[in-house]
Inverse folding.
């Protein structure tokens, strides 16, 4: 069991980060992510979303804080737990919902599914379902950005469990040697699937305790504190953009739901779950906003709008046709075909 | 007889062998406390304790490498790789180390280990969690490969794999974990390298394995009922060693061969078996053998697309019918 | 015309394309300052500078992953994996990421990258540095695969691979690096997916690639000289896309097929081509097509053993002769 | 360029380690390794050793110091640069030379070759030609040792360049989490093939600077100082044997020859080569022995004996027959066969 206090976190986020002018935008984004994920969960239970799905409930502050700090041309690389990161970059809910429900209107017309959300148009370069695989890819994208002088920064999200796999190590080494503009963000939600990360990891802080192995340092942030995340994100992106090389951030947060659709998450001690629910990134942030002068009513209005947006997205996906089955044999190659004959 | 699901059969096989031989140990991600993400190892930690059932970090190279090292030094490890797609992240350990050690050392080192994994598609997991890797492993000299299609066979083949002195890859099919059937009580151990004729008919031979076996049987029933076409359906079960005798006997009897495989098309196990049949039973063939495969694409996630990609009962029926008519 | 070695042809192809397109970059272990362990990239660092020719740590997952990410973001990387055997340590990047990205994103992301590697045996490097991985890559949907057998083809096929908008694996054959021939001056670019008939004869068709092409030609010469048997020898050159037309045309003309491959036997490219031929040219075949392969074992290191394992001129001669006689 | 002094090493090894009673045995072992490797090189040039080969010239103190400190039941895992480690465990020269020359008398009858020397009988569990591959395997062997209570310690040798590959990271993490009796020995010879390790590695000490990432600490030793290596090896083995979990050692040394047969090593600055040749592990140790009372004559005698042994091994290999070609299809499986049919 890891209580927030064990990790040196306050029992509620402090919201001390500099977010001037972004207060409501951050709130809106988090609400949208939260409501989308809740609805996605309901739709699973109804059998309308098939396969598997990994929600970001409880981790919205990381996705929101970063996305809001990024330039439109910056690039995101995320994992199978990628709904929030995809939406946060501005991808329409209907396209994401369509993909989850396997409709023709889906972001990839149903070819990718929940674990592979990608929207190049929005700088969302992909969700990767093999743990660790996207870290080297992010390094490559950042190398190209530097080499072409695009001023893009690449932000690469991954979990605590990912720090034990080989690709993580190779990617961080290479990123450091080549000094490329990538921000590695470890969303430490304390679990790799059903196993507490502490049970299978030799250090307490999976990313931060390893930074020096790559000649780098790391920043730890309260991943449930959207103000801190946004503030740190903004500074990290600026540092990278000015040639500061790779930046490492470990965001301490908590996965409020199970690992994936089929997981009730019963292996987590009740006290731990409760302590983390008490520092829910959204509820705490709403309280903070009210305490700093925003009205509950305006927050409620934002929430209502987000609910309507989710409703609309679900409706659009429900009424959309399934993809044409001819799609199976398309788009393997750049000429649009899937033929292995010349 | 107890009714067991395919996933329960995995745990039963492991328990049977772990009870019998203290050298058998189990490692993998979430296999211990959580009982496996497919719940196929549920209860084993309680029964055998934490020195024989071990959770690992997400580190498949370490999992297979550790299993190899342990097999060299007196244990008989069973390593779980959660999804067959993840063979890719530990492919060096599987293909270059585990498979080659005995040969390179001219027999100094035996490698009695088992790699279990959830193989195959049909559950809408998308391109990186649905692959059928039968051909990945079949093509590597030094690996034995089995793929049970029923709960009973899960027990018999897994037990045989664990007792075998060589590395054996057990391809469980993830779309079959919920399938249930009666499985005899008591110790159950098969022999590796035995195909089973699941149905006999004189018009053509269909070879399949894993989740394609029930589909082939359903297609055979339909063809018999609706068209009077009688198929022999052989469950290949073991790709290495391969029961060439049973396969050839059947093909010789019917003169016609169809393979049904989930592999993407190019260089699948179907191509290999077809080549063997052509080379060794040329004169007995009445027509060109035909492969029914997934097209040569990654698997799409959406249900309609995945269903269109994988060989379906309809596609088997139509293909067989068309070729028998011509 | 200049006389070029196969290894020099690699550098020439890369220089040709790097001069033409500033987006083409080269990465790998020891490729820059050292010019490659096979000296196939010698001179490129001097010519194109350290922002386009980069040494990496020993980290193949990072090499391929970085190439993929760069290809997504505007570059056209050529990544060297020193030995084809090392595909195993980055197999996830090759098989699960590079190959599937375009399909999974429904065409949003193109992946114009090239993976070059030293493939094949014959130089006594043992089981982990001598593998022929043609079938490893052919079986993965989303990879194009070429395998030049001559210096001229190294230039033409490598240039074509670099210009192609999809991922292409170029299998250089390490036993051929020292082979020399005249290569035309000026820009040289082939088309992917074209087989070349290296020799024509009416008695049988032999399909081979890489180092098996010169062996097949030598066998054909010997058979012509000593037995009056005239073979067509087709250099397959490109496994994906596959020039089915040229292959089938030849098989239809001769009615007999032999494949000669370095892959260990099971699920090799020979099995695939044999299956295609059987499925599509059944009526034109006069006899069972025959595969000549390495046996299904890892490659041994000692010269006499390696020579016995790989298809040799003698084995090709004997196999063809035996089957044509019967 | 990295001079010994840049790494904090004395210009000649100090020989302060506790080696009481082992003085001549260590000398003898190093001389045997040296002379064997030199001869192997000559045989390459004569075309009698085929394929490739990676010599340990200049690195003999590591192999000798460790092997001498190990119990016969302990296990060695090494790399393609494994002649020295194999001989040091007591494998007869004639079997190693036979393998290099591809003879029936070879350690694996020619099936493995120079890069895969293995002699289970001597606890030499294999030479691995894929960089990093053997580290997880060593962890597994150590796990089995602990689990079966054998009191064996596993010693796993690898190079500096190996620390950048994924398998290294996975192995060290798992070894630390499982606390198994393995000693990881990084032979930092400053080069990965033809590239200086410093050019492609983000930390100065490839292993030592990364120990903390695995919750471990590391010991650095002068890898040209056989006394120090032996002393540290003895203590590390004892620590592991008593349940001390994984131990990390970085031995600073230098590869006097090129990387492999075909490499003249010209990329190395002359000054660097000279500085390291001046601290040749064997010559310096001989001087030390003489200065501490041993006579040149007894050392010369040891050397003469070793020369005779090498001569004998070469002669035996030369006159041995090649392996039967039927061996190609044997010993893939435990039943001795190589058949894929049942
Ligand atoms: C190589 C690989 N191994 C195992 C898995 C199965 N798996 C999917 S998610 C996951 C846990 C990942 O944990 P973490 O990195 O902490 O991310 P989180 O899910 O908590 O966001 C595992 C083991 C996988 N997808 N890829
Ligand atoms: C996975 C892999 N990548 C690359 C190689 C090629 N290679 C062989 S040795 C070597 C250098 C290894 O350097 P280091 O670990 O320092 O060991 P050293 O050779 O110096 O003893 C390389 C890159 C390999 N064998 N395996
Ligand atoms: Mg996690
Ligand atoms: Mg080195």
């Amino acid at each position: 069991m890891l209580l927030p206090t064990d990790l040196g976190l306050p029992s509620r986020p402090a919201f001390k980060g500099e977010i001037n002018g972004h207060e409501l935008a951050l709130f809106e984004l988090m609400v949208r992510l939260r409501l989308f994920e809740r609805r996605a969960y309901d739709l699973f239970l109804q059998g309308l979303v098939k396969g598997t799905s990994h929600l970001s409930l409880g981790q919205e502050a990381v996705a929101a804080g970063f996305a809001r700090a990024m330039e439109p041309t910056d690039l995101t690389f995320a994992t199978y737990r990628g709904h929030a990161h995809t939406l946060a970059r501005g991808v329409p809910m209907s396209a994401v919902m369509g993909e989850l429900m396997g409709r023709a209107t889906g972001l990839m017309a149903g070819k990718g599914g929940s674990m592979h959300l990608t929207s190049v148009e929005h700088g969302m370069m992909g969700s990767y379902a093999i743990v660790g695989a996207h870290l080297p890819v992010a390094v490559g994208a950042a190398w190209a950005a530097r080499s072409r002088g695009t001023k893009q920064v690449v932000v690469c999200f991954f979990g605590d469990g990912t720090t034990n796999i080989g690709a993580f190590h190779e990617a961080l080494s290479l990123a450091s040697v080549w000094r490329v503009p990538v921000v590695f963000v470890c969303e430490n939600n304390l679990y790799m699937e059903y196993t507490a990360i502490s049970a299978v990891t030799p250090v307490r802080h999976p990313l931060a305790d390893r930074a020096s192995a790559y000649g780098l340092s790391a920043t730890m942030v309260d991943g449930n504190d959207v103000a801190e995340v946004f503030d740190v994100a903004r500074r990290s992106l600026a540092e990278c953009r000015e040639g500061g090389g790779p930046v490492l951030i470990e965001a301490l947060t908590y996965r409020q739901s199970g690992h994936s659709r089929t997981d009730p998450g019963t292996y987590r001690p009740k006290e731990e779950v409760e302590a983390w629910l008490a520092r829910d990134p959204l509820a705490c942030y709403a309280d903070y906003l009210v305490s700093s002068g925003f009205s509950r009513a305006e927050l409620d209005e934002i929430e209502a709008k987000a609910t309507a947006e989710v409703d609309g997205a679900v409706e659009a996906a429900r009424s959309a046709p399934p993809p044409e089955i001819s799609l199976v044999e398309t788009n393997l190659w750049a000429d649009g075909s899937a033929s292995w004959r010349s | 007889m107890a009714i067991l699901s395919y996933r329960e059969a995995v745990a039963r096989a492991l328990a049977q062998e772990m009870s019998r031989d203290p050298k058998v140990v189990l490692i993998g991600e979430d296999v211990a406390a959580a009982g496996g993400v497919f719940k196929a190892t549920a209860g084993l930690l309680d029964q055998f304790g934490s020195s024989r059932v071990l959770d690992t970090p997400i580190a498949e190279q370490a999992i297979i490498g550790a299993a190899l090292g342990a097999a060299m030094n007196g244990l008989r490890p069973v390593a779980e790789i959660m999804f067959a797609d993840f063979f890719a992240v530990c492919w060096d350990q599987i293909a270059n180390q585990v498979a080659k050690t005995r040969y390179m050392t001219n027999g100094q080192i035996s490698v009695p280990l088992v790699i279990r994994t959830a193989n195959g598609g049909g559950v809408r997991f998308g391109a990186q969690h649905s692959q059928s890797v039968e051909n990945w492993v079949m093509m590597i000299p030094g690996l034995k490969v089995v793929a049970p299609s029923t709960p009973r066979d899960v027990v018999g083949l897994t037990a045989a794999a664990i007792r075998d002195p060589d590395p054996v890859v057990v391809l469980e099919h993830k779309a079959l974990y919920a399938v249930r059937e009666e499985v005899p009580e008591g110790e159950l151990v098969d022999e590796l390298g035995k195909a089973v004729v699941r149905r006999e008919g004189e018009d053509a031979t269909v070879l399949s394995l894993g989740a394609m076996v029930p589909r082939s049987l359903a297609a055979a029933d339909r063809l018999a009922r609706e068209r009077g076409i009688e198929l022999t359906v052989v469950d290949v079960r073991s790709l290495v060693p391969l029961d060439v005798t049973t396969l050839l006997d059947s093909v010789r009897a019917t003169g016609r061969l169809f393979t049904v495989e989930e592999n993407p098309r190019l260089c699948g196990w179907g191509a290999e078996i077809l080549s063997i049949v052509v080379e060794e039973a040329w004169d007995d063939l009445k027509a060109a053998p035909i492969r029914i495969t997934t097209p040569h694409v990654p698997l799409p996630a959406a249900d309609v697309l995945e269903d269109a990609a994988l060989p379906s009962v309809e596609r088997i029926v139509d293909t067989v019918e068309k070729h028998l008519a011509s």
Q: What stands out?
A: Residues 5 and 180 of chain B are 4 Å apart (CA to CA).
